[in-house]
Design brief:
single chain; 330 residues; alpha/beta; Rossmann fold; 2 domains; five-stranded parallel beta sheet
Amino acid sequence: MKVAVFSTKPYDREFLEAANVNHGHELVFLEGRLNLEHSILAKDFPAVCTFVNDELNAKTLNLIAENGTRLIALRCAGFNQVDLKTAKELGLTVVRVPAYSPYAVAEHTITLILSLNRKIHRAYNRVREGNFALEGLLGFDLHGRTVGIVGTGKIGMITAHILKGFGCKLLGYDLYPNSECQEMGMQYVSLPELLAASDIISLHCPLTRDSYHLINNETIDHMKHGVMLINTSRGALVDTNAVIRGLKSGKIGYLALDVYEQESDLFFEDLSNEVIQDDVFQRLQTFPNVLITAHQAFFTENALRNIAETTLTNISDFAQGRNCANVVTI
């Protein structure tokens, strides 16, 4: 099958080409994102392969459908970037990678917690400059701390398993409680209760209409003073302006983000020689208690290999008329 692969980086090409040896699709790699402006590039491609920051809104979907596209193969778990209603109306099939390596994201979450707490990012820079003073680097024991996990699917569950090993008390919030989390001692509570009782809050829920700006001025008011907030899920779960106010007041004592609600113009690109125009993001960068990584939580060899294989299997299933377990429906 002829596939236009958008938002391509060298590592995408490496793993997709390796996996394609067993599938034999014609892959055409394109660096740009699929959006309204670039939709013409999908002309005569029955399938497009896209990533998290491609813009698959109604206008884009209409154009690619008119030009012959029938399949949208997402090489990610989330599908909030796709107008599923329009896709269904146009007869477009949407497939995704529901689970590539939950361990990768969970382990990155723990990395952010430890780095923020023990201020590893600041200590590293100090030592390189010959500054061996410890003032300002004081941390706390994770043992005995209360951690609230918002969203207890596979990633949230694995994060909880790791934190249990540190001796943390686990609270969970999810519309569908996970029995394995309950067996390890997690207590499910309401969201306000979780926010009020947690020393550390980690977000692992999908982005939906209901979860958009889940962290906002009101929910921040429920939190402990000096709370640590971690987001490795989706950027728009967090109202960034509200979080900045929380940082300035001291209500949020630590913040780590691997995702950002306006990341599509920043992440996955080298902008080191440019002036970044996003003033809100630049404001975040000024806080000494903020740690930001550029959507790299998923970025392990294991995950990229699984993403490539599942993506190409999804395409093969569609091309050969087989049922695909990873079709996204409304």
